Amino acid sequence: MKILVADFIYTDEGYIQKKAIAFDDFIKDIDNIETLKNIYPKAEVINTPKNSVIYPGFINSHVHLEFSNNKTTLKYGSFIPWLKSVIKNVDMIAKCTKNDMKKAYMEMLKSGVTSFGAISSNGNDLESCVKTPQRVVYFNEILGSKEENCDDAYNNFTQRVEKSIRFTSDKFKPAISIHSPYSTHPKLIKKAVNLAKEKKFLISAHLLESKAEKDWIEESKGEFYDLYNEFFGIQKPINTKESFLKEFDDISTHFIHLTNANFDDIVYLKSKDHSVAHCPRSNRLLGCGILDVSNLNIPWTTATDGLSSNWSLNIFDELRSAIMIHANDDLNDLADKLIKSITSVPAEILELNCGMIEQEKFADFAIVTLPDTPNYIDEISLWTILHTKYVNQLYIGGNRYV
Ligand SMILES: [Zn+2]
Predict the structure, then answer these.
(1) Closest to 354 measured CA to CA, from 10, 26, 53, 108
(2) Active-site entry in 209, 213, 247, 318
(3) Given 235, 320, 325, 395, which is the most exposed site by the fewest CB atoms within 10 A?
């Protein structure tokens, strides 16, 4: 048993003071330090520097480790030119090494991320996702727009799913991702959604990321029309927005982006118990707009997306950017919501027993040390976001990694 002591402990209801946490693999007790020492006289007491805050380990709900080797290759600024640059540089992207992926998950770890949702396009990240100390929800992704290739695409996908199932543990959970409405044939979507229902897998899908995607799946026009017409002679999308959404009616789904969703879309998503990952830097860099989180009434997480559309996987870089991008939102309220969007909210969506400092949750902690004593306790979320690049200590399942 260990007892962790800090000036502040984060809870969803606010920051508490003069308490400590007793834990082994799980959180056992939250109480005054003296009380805990009496209950657990043999426990090792771990002190933290003055002005430290214990947070539950952070959760990055959406990342692509396989695309970790892009720095200056892909074209930023607008979605379709970016997509074309991805297609053009597919060989370079495929050369992403295990070392590149290790650097990527270590960067997340140092910023306090103890769990992440990895989108796996080809299975090259499986070993890294099993080896990493972090908890991983491993989203095996399916895509393919041509009907004649559906069988091959599905076979390849199920082989990857089967392989990932073998590693299921406390720290590794296989799941399913449908790439997007513009890239995944309805036959593949149906089969993959059925598999998710049957095996009780979590499911995720990119949706309404760019204006080009919206124009294409709503009205069969725009930049995607030009792209599909030029390369494949296709003039109509394989899924409309409505037909795509219908496929997920009976399975609560973590949609990614929704930057181009309208009010009615959100009402519909709410009625079906769906949620969304907000990726502010990726959306900015690919010219996709801003997800208006202040008016969202569905659960939302904040995530980095992959290094194919970002410059770092440091979760605090993401939160700081969100603070700047949502320039009209109440500052402290936004900061509190952003902390929730990387703790309790993604834990619930990804069905992880963490994300809160509560008895019998996993002992996953990120300890942040503020540079000075906070004058106002209700502003700690903001100070944390503004002043933190790396955490001071980090625990996963009671073991220390930072
Ligand atoms: Zn993504």
Answers:
(1) 26
(2) 209
(3) 235
